[in-house]
Write a structure and sequence with these properties.
The chain is α/β, with parallel strands linked by helices. The chain is 28% helix and 24% strand. It has two domains: 32-174 and 299-317, Rossmann fold; 179-295, Rossmann fold (3-Layer(aba) Sandwich).
Length: 319
């Protein structure tokens, strides 16, 4: 006599030989879903194209008073969700948008929520450098966790120790593989010599280059930095190198904030070329500057997303 469906033997039930084995419910989805905020939709689309997956359906609008309204337009229950939203200018608006998105996915029962922040805003406020000031990057990390983030994927943090502010796993990528491919390699791989710029920061966005440590005479120099904000330090560094006899000066960075007079300073400087990545979208003035070139980190981020989703090692993406 055939057993009824409810009497089918289950070896994983109590007393069965497979009782201690971890099983995945057939009703739990592990589908990869990528959503993007409004901060860098072009980069989000590039990531989706590389992974050959559709961008998740959602809507971001604003009320007349400026409040953000976010809605998920598809089922995400049990899904492995990645939200791409760099916290670039306008920093505070993009952060609030990210927090609201994370909360929406948590309430929609996503299995795991990974916040993908190619650029982590407030990273330069990572310590108390004056009395009675906040550690803003710690505040941001706490808010990300409190909103419901299960994992963070970011790139070239201004201070790597910021990872310690989080109580969740952090995957910290470097844009170096992309920049290395453009410049062939950095000083170590070219067996070139290293020169150090000694600078003193007078106040926020104001730095003074004191001197160049190293011989740069009759050499082509490459200035490497993580962020170019107002470009004051960068231009002063280029001037100092030129005065010390450098024949050509190039620069590269991961995060082109390029605020205030940055583009004007770069355009009128001795810099031959400034190579940046697309962790932050360039504003119109920066796009018109012929000295600024953009490299895409979408492949690097997409590979990291795939590794996280498949639970494989991300370290293979490091140099």
């Amino acid at each position: 006599m055939k057993r009824p469906p409810e009497a089918v033997y289950r070896s994983d039930l109590a007393g069965g030989p497979d009782a201690n084995k971890k099983t995945e419910s057939p009703f739990v989805s592990n589908e990869l879903k990528i959503f993007g905020g409004t901060a860098n939709s072009a980069l989000t689309n590039e990531i989706c194209k590389y992974l050959d997956c559709e961008l998740g359906k959602s809507s971001v609008t604003r009320f007349s008073d400026g409040e953000i309204y976010f809605q998920i337009l598809e089922n995400v229950r049990g899904a492995d969700v990645f939200i791409v939203q760099p916290t670039c200018p306008p920093v505070d608006a993009n952060l609030i948008e990210l927090f609201l998105m994370i909360d929406a996915f948590k309430r929609a029962s996503a299995r795991r929520i990974t916040a993908v922040l190619p650029y982590f805003g407030y990273a330069r406020q990572d310590r108390k450098d004056k009395p009675r000031v906040p550690i803003s990057s710690k505040v941001v990390s706490d808010l990300l966790v409190a909103s419901g983030t299960d994992r963070l994927l970011t790139m070239d943090l201004h201070a790597p120790q910021i990872q310690g502010f989080f109580s969740i796993p952090v995957d910290h990528l470097f844009a170096a593989p992309v920049l290395v491919e453009h410049f062939q390699t950095f000083a170590k791989r070219l067996r070139a010599e290293l020169a150090i710029m000694n600078k003193r920061r007078i106040e926020a966005n104001v730095a003074q280059v004191m001197n160049v440590i190293g011989d740069v005479r009759s050499r082509t120099c490459l200035i490497v930095d993580d962020i170019i904000d107002t470009a004051g330090t960068l231009v002063k560094a280029a001037d100092a190198l030129a005065k010390d006899g450098a024949t050509k000066v190039y620069a590269c960075c991961s995060h082109p904030v390029l605020s205030g007079p940055a583009v004007e300073r770069i355009q009128s400087s001795d810099l031959v070329e400034v190579v940046v990545t697309n962790t932050i979208p360039l504003h119109s003035e920066a796009r018109r500057c012929k000295k600024i070139s953009v490299l895409s980190v979408s492949k690097l981020l997409a590979q990291a997303v795939q590794s996280i989703h498949e639970e494989t090692s991300v370290s293979v993406l490091f140099i």
